[in-house]
Amino acid sequence: MIKNFHFRRSLCAAIVGLSFGIATASGGAEHEILLTIKDHRFYPADLKVPANQKIKLMIHNRDATTEEFESHKLNREKLIPPGAKTLIYIGPLKPGR
């Protein structure tokens, strides 16, 4: 469970706020993005990913506490233990923000 409610809200906003500015044709290839949690923040804070393509989002929790990845818009929720990495599949997503 996340001890810092503000971080949880920021996490939701960061994931919902992903930028999907690159329009591509639907293909079988998956695009992998690395997202790091450190000091209860996301690095990078903004992501640009290809539209119309399935995304592999690798999240690495570098904090000493369990963190929660949660996005209602993307229909994803996952607890990530300290030091652990997890893979979340997203999309394909339409162009937009």
**In whole angstroms, how far apart are the ends?**
29 Å
User: What is the domain total for the residues?
Assistant: 1
**Uncertain runs:** 1-27
Largest sheet: 4 strands, mixed
Structural class by sheet pairing and helices: mainly beta
Number of helices: 1
Assigned CATH superfamily: Cupredoxins -  blue copper proteins
Strand arrangement in the largest pleated sheet: 3-2-5-8
* Strand fraction: 35-45%
Would you state the CATH class? Mainly Beta
CATH architecture group name: Sandwich
Quaternary state of this entry equals: single chain
Helix coverage percent: 10-25%
The whole-number mean of residue pLDDT values reads 77
Query: How would the global form be characterised?
Result: elongated
CATH fold label: Immunoglobulin-like
> Taking Cα atoms only, what radius of gyration do you get, to the nearest Å?
13 Å
Tell me how many strands there are.
Answer: 8
SSE string:
HEEEEEEEE
